[in-house]
Amino acid sequence: MAAHVSAGNIHNFYLAGQVYRGQAYPNFGFTNPFKEPSWSSGVFKALRAERCGCYSRGVSAITESSKPCTSIRAVSVSSSTKYYDFTVIGSGVAGLRYALEVAKQGTVAVITKDEPHESNTNYAQGGVSAVLCPLDSVESHMQDTMVAGAHLCDEETVRVVCTEGPERIRELIAMGASFDHGEDGNLHLAREGGHSHRRIVHAADMTGREIERALLEAVLNDPNISVFKHHFAIDLLTSQDCLNTVCHGVDTLNIKTNEVVRFISKVTLLASGGAGHIYPSTTNPLVATGDGMAMAHRAQAVISNMEFVQFHPTALADEGLPIKPQTARENAFLITEAVRGDGGILYNLGMERFMPVYDERAELAPRDVVARSIDDQLKKRNEKYVLLDISHKARDKILAHFPNIASECLKHGLDITRQPIPVVPAAHYMCGGVRAGLQGETNVLGLFVAGEVACTGLHGANRLASNSLLEALVFARRAVQPSTELMKRTRLDVSASEKWTRPVVATARLLGDEVISKITALTKEVRGELQEVMWKYVGIVRSTIRLTTAERKIAELEAKWETFLFEHGWEQTVVALEACEMRNLFCCAKLVVSSALARHESRGLHYMTDFPFVEESKRIPTIILPSSPTTATWSSRRLQNISSSSLIDC
Question: The dihedral of CA 22, 455, 284, 343: what is its sign?
């Protein structure tokens, strides 16, 4: 249960799994939570001070050297342990762009859960926002970003991203990414909701796929980069260097061979994407189970702004299609923001246009406004979907701009050049995540973050359309210099790799066929129940009663699942793909609920019926500090322990 301790009339100090909100943290001497989220900032100093006296420097697989260290050759001491200068977790735009740069300085392992292209990047339709038109300006892009983010954005971060964005686009083009051009030969710039100018660079309605193609091609041709597909990241490997938590790599599960593979590295970049599958309907691919956020939380990283879950207003509503899909989709099919940007109009099933009633910007309002408006229409009219109509535009332009959407709809008997598209909101993007500084640094030494897994302060309370790929590109690039500097002054201790307990794979030999079957069935059932709880109680519109109900139901569900596992032979270090994903989904769901309960106002994506207004005094980020490993459930505890013989006082 959350305990609330007053710290002045604007500052609140929450302990709900350790959730903090306030412009100042009691006794931390720390004022602006996003201005200086570096390792030396007050909140991180406080964290380190609390943990002093845990593990010694001797535990580390990595040690600092006063002399420059040379790059290491990619080494496999055995098939189960591999050594690299850099480990990159995730193969979306952030991970691949970073890998290509740091590969100029050392060896790189790119770890990806599925096929390398299977990432949120690959499903991004709309494009990348950047100031490339003479009539546009960095100041205008900044203003649009901060208005969409309900003024919770960090201004310095916003300026950095909007300023550096155009150069990141030019780099992609130089690498072979092909974007649409207009009749004048210049890049065709689209406009989307929340943008005051045309500034969206795109490749029809398959922009993410094109960027992923170009980056992946370059990565696969780089001799310094090794890609390990079908490797599920289990937990980060960390130690305590007296006051500091230090990251040394990651344990993974090779899904194809069912073997645990340990990666030891000097620097780790977490670029594992979001957590859309905490909800039953999401535009995210199946791999988006919040693995990175959960791993980072367990590794003592600070998490921020998890209450801000973006629901895309317009995912394809299958039940409104003339020909229904024969099987349920693994993820909802996205109808890009650009459809509304190009003049698409939203109607309810009575063919009444409703957006002007809710916002003067109508269909071009930011996503949070449009999603809530649709949700309100559905509840008032007891309908399952609304209609998005672009058929009043020229047929050839519709097909040129939205070929992928047109093709998908036509498969199901719907011609978007003549008929409106049935749409419904779906979970889409996590605006919160692992708290990062301006170079992607975290409070865990050696751990950097970029992309959706990170919370940089750019998005605030709601992400502006097409700012996600932009942020990933900018922060992946900004993390390169500090990463390479750290790599060059760090030595690897190969003998230290066995200091961490190795995970054990759940097999029939270990648990028995019947137990494995029962655990698999229960995990699938519990996953569905968790998703339904999140949608019903932690969706687009929330209340304190709904959130506390969700908190209770999630705790009961997790206790039921965890008890069943451990009563049937499961142990702390046992791993299996479905169980580890479930563990991460529970962890992320709890982070979202804890953060939502801590914000007593309605801002951006977080709308509370019992706190329906924006409160200026609460225009501050939500900070989640690590929970105690001794009292946490399995989802919040790391699997690995360091052997007791290594423990000494600092």
Answer: positive
Catalytic residue from among 262, 367, 435, 477: 367
Within 10 A of 338 (CB to CB), how many other CB atoms are there?
26
Q: For residue range 156-195, what is the model confidence (pLDDT) as tens digits?
A: 999 999 999 999 999 999 999 999 998 888 999 988 888 9
Question: In sequence order, what are the beta bridge partners of 20?
Answer: 13, 623
User: Number of C-alpha atoms within 13 angstroms, CB side, residue 368?
Assistant: 23
3-state SS, residue 82? strand
**Ramachandran category for residue 512: left, alpha or beta (phi over 0 → left; psi -120 to 50 → alpha):** left
Distance separating alpha carbons of residues 112 and 96, to the nearest angstrom? 11
What Rg value do the Cα atoms of the chain yield, rounded? 24
User: What's CA 158's distance to the chain center, in Å?
Assistant: 18
Q: How far is residue 626's CA from residue 213's CA, in Å, rounded to a whole number?
A: 37
Strands (E), 411-536: 421-430, 433-435, 447-449, 454-455, 490-492, 504-505
Q: How far apart are CA 261 and CA 173, in angstroms?
A: 36
More confident residue, 248 or 240: 248
Tokens of residue 115, six digits: 């096929």
Quick: pLDDT tens for 421-449: 999 999 999 999 999 999 999 999 999 99
Which strands, in side-by-side order, build the sheet including 200-201? Answer: 128-129, 200-201, 189-190
β-pair type (386-389, 433-435): unpaired
Q: Return phi, psi of residue 138, to 5°.
A: -60, -40
Look at residue 90 and give its three-state secondary structure.
coil
**DSSP line for 324-342:** --SS--SSPPB--HHHHHT
Instruction: Round to the nearest angstrom and report the end-to-end CA distance of the chain.
Output: 33
Res 8: pLDDT: 25
Sign of the dihedral defined by the CA atoms of residues 460, 463, 466, 471, in that order: positive
Residue 409 is which amino acid?
C
Q: What 3-state DSSP class applies to 594?
A: helix
The 3-state DSSP class for residue 248 equals strand
**Contact yes or no for 358/365 (Cβ under 8 A):** yes
Virtual CA dihedral for 327, 525, 299, 63, nearest 10 degrees?
-70
Structure tokens at 632: 């946490």
Distances in Å between the Cα of 250 and the Cα atoms of 132, 401, 438 are 39, 41, 24
Are the beta carbons of 437 and 76 closer than 8 angstroms?
Answer: no
Burial (CB count <10 Å: 0-12, 13-18, 19+), residue 509:
exposed
| Distance set, CA 232 to CA 90, 236, 250, 567 (Å) | 10, 12, 10, 25
Whether the predicted model's global pTM rises above the 0.85 cut: yes
Going by the DSSP 8-state scheme, the letter that residue 377 receives in this structure is H
In this predicted model, what pLDDT tens digit does every residue of 235-244 receive, in sequence order? 999 998 878 8
Contacts for 362 with CB less than 8 Å, ≥ 6 apart: 355, 356
Other Cβ atoms closer than 10 A to 647? 15
Cβ atoms of residues 405 and 339 within 8 Å: yes
User: Taking a C-beta distance cutoff of 8 angstroms, is the pair 93, 171 a contact?
Assistant: no
Tell me if residue 542 is catalytic. Answer: no
* 241-250, 381-390, 621-630: segment of lowest average pLDDT: 621-630
